[in-house]
Amino acid sequence: MPSYPLVLPCACSSVERMHRLRRSSDFARVRADGDTWAHQLVVLAAAPNERNISRFGFVTGKRIGTAVKRNRAKRVLREAVRQLLPRIPMGWDCVLIARSPLSEATSADAKMAISQLFKCARLWFSTREMEGSGGSAPWPASGARTETLVG
User: Fold this and answer.
1) Tens digits of per-residue pLDDT, 46-73?
2) Pick from 141, 149, 91, 144: which is nearest to 115 by CA?
3) Is 28 within a domain?
């Protein structure tokens, strides 16, 4: 029997369960009641919730490619959100929808795209806000339901 250490999955390698959207009714509510912002790699839909945490759902359609590509896209999105979670205010449900180019993009590209979307949605704490007062970022005052970013 080979003598190598067991590698157990790390709990910190993914978005925690309490930060995930799991019910289809939650996904439908965010898509119907929330606003959307689009990037070349990802679409963000966000709606306020009545909780003290933000939750995230990840969608990859068959346009992305095979199951392997879809699963990779979800992993990349989850990891980017996990790294950016401290900068996202509490009290939001967000759905991230992968677009076809995401299957070929790097993790850094996905992280940059997601951070741009959250900044555009005004769901982003700057470094100054993180050090100072904190609080929840305001909901965008624009009347438009959808904004598109050029990536």
Assistant:
1) 999 988 889 999 999 999 999 999 999 9
2) 149
3) yes
